[in-house]
Amino acid sequence: TTSVAAAAVSSIPRQNLENRCINLERNELSDWVEQVTKKLIDDLPAQNTDTDDHHSRTLQAPADIPMLCEDSFPPSLLGDFRPRKTVTSSDFDELQWSNVNGGNDRGLSRLDEQGLSLITLLLECAVAISIDNLGEAHRMLLELTQMASPYALSCAERVVAYFAKAMSSRVINSWLGICSPLINYKTVHCAFQAFNNVSPFIKFAHFTSNQAILEAFHRRDRVHIIDLDIMQGLQWPALFHILATRMEGPPHVTMTGMGSSMELLTETGKQLSNFAKRLGMSFEFHPIAKKFGEIDITMVRLRRGETLAIHWLQHSLYDATGPDWKTMRLMEQLGPRILTLVEQDLSHGGSFLDRFVGSLHYYSTMFDSLGAYLAADDPNRHHIEHCLLYREINNILAIGGPARSGEDKMKQWRSELAARNSFVQVPMSSNSMAQAQLILNMFPPAHGYRLVQGDGTLRLGWKDTSLFTASAWTSHISR
Amino acid sequence: MDEEDFSASSSKQYYPYYPHPQPHPSATGTTTTTPTSIHHAFETSEFSTFSPARDLTFDFSGKWATDILLETATAIADRNSGRFQQLMWMLNELSSPYGDTDQKLGSYFLQALFNRMTDSGERCYRTLASVSEKTCSFETTRKMVLKFQEVSPWTTFGHVACNGAIMEAFEGESKLHIIDISSTYCTQWPTLLESLATRTDETPHLKLTTIVATKNGGAPGSITSGTAASVQDIMKEIGNRMEKFARLMGVPFKFNVIHHGGDLCELDLSKLDIKEDEALAINCVGTLHSIRAVDNRRDMMISNFKKLQPRIITVVEEEADLDVGVDGMEFVKGFQECLRWFRVYFEALDESFARTSNERLMLERAAGRA
């Protein structure tokens, strides 16, 4: 019977395999990544001779990544994906220099074997890091950083290049023993703006939140908005415009903008004030150059009779709010009428390997979405990938994590909020949905983006992977 | 840059940064471990609660990489491990091989310094070289070199000057022999062949003997950083193409390749097959600097050249002395020179190539290895 089983196993499809690989033509490497990572993690305890209990604790496949395929790969197939030590020159040429018509960059017309073998090596490297085998990781990273280019036609290769770089960064800061970030906020904001121009996610976040806030401000004359990380305040002009032109006349608006540098906050404040003035709307701006989770309630100039909205567009560029439990506590104390939350569908908690696998899936999808819209040699795309997406990847892998910052991050805010008695969910209205739909229509490969309404939330993703979820909440003690 | 109080971080164990493990006077209450193997160098340090970012106002404009790198070199020379740590941390955060020139410089130099401090330089170099070799084929190398020549006069400048001088020296001769010791994959010669073909008198016979030294430490974008096997393949292909081209030009042509392992000054002259009636030129582009200026080696090379009695010797070299001393101030000076040189190189590349050029990336990586 064993020989029959063996025969059955080996007869599985090279075919099956290729079917899956062909999906990659359409840049759905994220699906493949998911399957391989699960397999690789499952394989591990057998391979490693080191402390097994340590492994069993850390090597649980993340439960929240939906498995799209029921079949599991037999180990022999996975063996085929071990990085081939010699990449033949003809393969490489084909992949590297294949002709793709400019404009609609659909990736390669043949199997992206190079990309796959790179990802496999990347995963092995991540495992090495997770068990603190930095020497081995470093060696693999040397290879990866020489082989993967961020300018490649293949999204897989780009993702590998940036992930490898982030891990190199981690190896070095592990060795140094310092893991604080040093950030050039101007560059980040600039890249954020560029991203906003080519991709619908940010506008989705802005417009759906604005709608929820607008509804909460219905018939209120004095309103106060706290933006937990205002950056350049791109979101607010649109809301101001609607508030200024509403039936019952404009309210008096106070805005508390939080961020990292007073200089940048002041600049943002000035822009918003000018805009409000042109609209004839009464406006006050209070900048706070601190993290929300590090201030106390007295710092917020909330006046009696003001209707409060708290807005939080979560990102992974840097830690914008400080300790989660303090953030939650302050929100409860403030008791806003509306709390608009836009979360990345990505967990910041958990072990290195968990975060690694989750973010690989997430960012592969992101890169895919950009690649469907922008050409491979588009400098704008490079700017976004390098200054924004890479920043996030680096922050997640090289900086973040409980072992380093010493604090535990909440896995998912909406679950936390739902579990507490202090907040009640406000379902996103059909108007919000309509807003979201309008935005999607502005972006060409609309067929790639998927908008889903459910559980009172709105989710926007690419193909089958949800990337951002917008939700709204109201406090029990709100006015 | 602010002077920070490092006492918070000095309570953790230091790793063997230096070959001589002496407790640094400013690090109070630490224990330094004796370096035993490279393995130890890769252990994770315990994370300090030290958070340098908080009070640091950093000026991102201007050539920050040069400033930070020079300070790092000085910190190494002074054995100031606290300062070294802080600077390396900054470099690690700020640099990227995919960003602007300062970010690139930061990235490659950071790697190099890291390797130096963990004593893993040799090993890393070998890994990098072997990987790059696997990923490079004749086609990709050719594309890189040609694109570089297309967008920048960096190499062609030297070629044109040398060819001009050689043509002059060979005036009226009918049997020519060029000994070529270069790093530019014979891209210099097609133009020369053309000139020979269009000379007003009878087309002379040209013998080209290319010497390829397979030794570590090649200049940016050069042959000499590969291993014997790959270089042989490349040269074979190049030879074929040269011969074809010469036939097309109608120039009687003979092509020889000599692969020489080891130092150039030990070259066996008899191998060169130089005939009595040949007019000889020796052409050296970007290779002589690999002969170290010790033990009279360079003198030997020159006297070798003299023995051959050439009509002309043409030399193209980089305006840089990249010999980094072992320790102290010599190291800093050498480091500074390296920095200056590579900055110039990277800036030139940045100017000439498109933002997202893979060819440029290849060249940068080769430089990174160097």
Description:
The complex is a heterodimer of chains A (479) and B (370). Chain A is an alpha/beta fold and 479 residues long. Helices cover 51% and strands 13% of the residues of chain A. Chain A folds into 2 domains: 115-178 and 350-401, no CATH class; 185-347 and 408-478, 3-Layer(aba) Sandwich (Rossmann fold), CATH 3.40.50.150. Chain A is built from 19 helices and 9 strands. In chain A, strand 8 (457-462) and strand 9 (465-475) form a beta hairpin. Chain A is globular and about 65 Å long. Chain A starts with a helix and ends with a strand. Chain B is built from 12 helices and 5 strands. Chain B has 370 residues and is α/β, with parallel strands linked by helices. Residues 1-43 and 216-226 of chain B have low confidence and may be disordered. In chain B, helix 2 packs parallel to helix 4 (101-117), helix 6 (138-151) crosses helix 12 (358-369) and helix 8 packs parallel to helix 9 (228-249). Chains A and B meet through helix 6, helix 8, helix 9 and helix 16 of A and helix 1, helix 3, helix 4, helix 5 and helix 6 of B.
